[in-house]
Write a structure and sequence with these properties.
Largest sheet: 7 strands, antiparallel
Strand content: 15-25%
Number of helices: 8
Protein name: Phytanoyl-CoA dioxygenase family protein
InterPro entries: Fungal_Metabolite_Diox, Phytyl_CoA_dOase-like
Order of helices and strands: HHEHEHHEEEHEEEEEHHEE
GO molecular function, one term: dioxygenase activity
Strand order of the largest sheet: 1-7-4-9-3-2-12
Organism: Paenibacillus lignilyticus
Keywords: Dioxygenase, Oxidoreductase
Distance between the termini: 31 Å
Structural class: alpha+beta
Helix content: 25-40%
Number of strands: 12
């Protein structure tokens, strides 16, 4: 969905667009707010991320990326935990008013950040990832009903995402609405069902905001270009208290009250990490 220039300038979504976005997430499992971050902010984030990725590949590439080990084997998709430091912890990343206005309606106002990371499709991938949700069943095989949305993934692409550079493929309109036990190991296999279902590639301009239910089926696709396709990736959770994010105390004290609340369960007083493989 597109928002007006006035909304971008004031960082305030109108009520109609908030409700539209909320309904799209509830019905389809996702919403995209196209190109809402300032161009100069996206350029700053992209430069810093490219430097972090170059450092990571130089230090760890042989063991992780070049040897295609683990879940990323053959896909050239790489998840990197980011340091909680500028520019990655900019207020337009961690507490964007558009995203918070939407999430407040879905998650309540007491949710927190439980992931501070990134997902990058690197050139040279030979196959797509398996079709998957990001979270499994909360109650194993016990719960046979659909549960409310409790976790939303927040992505910001740092380049224009198109068919040639590894866009995410999604299965919207129902895969986030299954009974809880369907997301467990004894539920239907997404790889078996997905070829018979409607999917779409997520194309969006740099600086967009993508919000999606963690349960919506999706996968990364191969990047056929010569440049990386990076996404910043955070998860906002109404229930979980995962505390993998290390935040120096002086950094935490400089955050807004809302940002402090969002990161209240994290490792406050710990040094910011180096870029680290998920």
């Amino acid at each position: 969905m597109k928002v007006s220039q006035h909304e971008i300038d004031t960082l305030t979504l109108n009520e109609e667009n908030i409700q539209l976005a909320v309904n799209l997430i509830r019905v389809n499992g996702y919403v995209i707010l196209e190109g809402v971050l300032p161009t100069e902010k996206v350029a700053e984030l992209k430069k810093a991320f490219t430097e972090a990725m170059d450092w990571f590949i130089d230090k760890h590439g042989k063991e992780i990326y070049l040897n295609k080990t683990g879940f990323n084997e053959g896909t050239n998709h790489l998840g990197i935990f980011l340091p909680f430091a500028a520019p990655f912890n900019d207020s337009l990343v961690i507490e964007h008013p558009f995203a918070l206005a939407i999430m407040d309606r879905i998650l309540g106002k007491d949710y927190s950040v439980t992931l501070f990371s990134s997902n990058t499709s690197l050139p040279g991938g030979q196959k797509a990832q398996p079709v998957h949700p990001d979270y499994g069943a909360r109650f194993g095989d016990l719960c046979t009903t659909h549960l409310p949305i409790t976790d939303l993934v927040f992505n910001i692409p740092l380049v224009d995402v198109h068919e040639g550079n590894g866009p995410m493929e999604i299965w919207p309109g129902g895969t986030h609405l299954l009974p809880d036990n369907y997301y467990g190991p004894n539920g239907p296999n997404p790889e078996d069902l997905a070829p018979h279902m409607h999917s779409m590639k997520v194309h969006m301009p740099a600086g967009s905001i993508l919000l999606r239910d963690v349960r919506m089926w999706h996968r990364g696709t191969p990047n056929r270009s010569n440049e990386i396709r990076p996404n910043l990736a955070l998860i906002y959770s109404a229930m979980d208290r995962d505390n993998r994010v290390q935040i120096p105390i002086e950094t935490y004290e400089q955050l807004s009250d809302r940002a402090k609340h969002l990161f209240r369960w994290q490792k406050i007083g710990y040094p910011a990490i180096e870029p680290t493989h998920e």
